């Protein structure tokens, strides 16, 4: 039901999804909707919750991981900057967790780990040089937006 609702239009809040489901006779809590949104791969963007573009999520062969990451980077990244041994990625509000999950699934060369907030991702690297190299590689993927 959530997929059908999100295929019609993005939802601004989880509460609006709860209300929509209840209007169809399905009693759910916001916590259940939250878990279900994660399970179906919904992303939260400026317009609200929506389903990702086809091919972005879901089961993909390992060879598809980088292709998917490239598409996600181009769609969600505002800028990528090196900061000492970190790479800082800025996204639109609500996009950072989704993007960090995609980055974690690929684990690009030089990345030690990453941490996401609402609109910012910190990628830890082993050195300032590694951060610069990774930052340049990621910027190349998005076409040098930074």
What features would you describe in this structure?
A 4-stranded antiparallel β-sheet has the order 3-4-6-5. Strands 1-2 form a two-stranded antiparallel sheet. It contains 6 helices and 6 strands. The longest helix is centred in the C-terminal third of the chain and has 14 residues, at 128-141. It has 2 domains: 2-50, no CATH class; 62-141, 2-Layer Sandwich (Gyrase A, domain 2). The N and C termini lie far apart (39 Å). The protein has helices at 2-8, 14-23, 30-40, 65-76, 96-106, 128-141; strands at 43-45, 48-50, 77-83, 86-91, 111-116, 120-125. The model is unreliable at 54-63 (pLDDT under 50). With 146 residues, the chain is α+β, with helices and mostly antiparallel strands. 45% of the residues lie in helices and 21% in strands. α4 runs antiparallel to α5.
Helix content: 40-55%
Shape: elongated
Second CATH tier, the architecture of the largest domain = 2-Layer Sandwich
Class by alpha and beta content = alpha+beta
First-last Cα distance:
39 Å
The largest sheet, given as strand count, sense and whether it forms a barrel, is:
4 strands, antiparallel
Topology pattern, helix = H, strand = E: HHHEEHEEHEEH
Please state how the strands of the largest beta sheet are arranged side by side.
3-4-6-5
What count of structural domains? Answer: 2
**CATH level 1 class label of the largest domain:** Alpha Beta
How many E strands? 6
Q: Could you tell me the radius of gyration in angstroms?
A: 17 Å
> What is the count of helical runs?
6
Overall mean pLDDT stands at: 83
